[in-house]
Amino acid sequence: MRASLCAVAVIAFAGPNPMHGRTAFKLAPAQSGHVSVDLFDLAGRKVKSLLDGHMMAGETRELVWNGRQDDGRNAATGMYVVRMKSADGVQMLRVVRMK
What is the pLDDT of residues 47-60, one digit of tens each? Predict the structure, then answer.
């Protein structure tokens, strides 16, 4: 498992990466507040919103990306950036989608 740390908030892969059909991420903010988790392609376009809501400090969630964009179409093969924004700051992970 790979983790990116900012303060003590964590977003980490639950796996797999690279992914074929789906992959999962675990997150746990250190501070209560609004949390958003979005997926972007390497051109910076938002592909998928995985979470946009409130989380309590220390609460753990697992988010699953099924390889689809917000509009329901399959995302292209390639590298994507997962961005978590919270009161703790911004953290990013990379995920590779393979067909």
Answer: 999 999 999 998 99
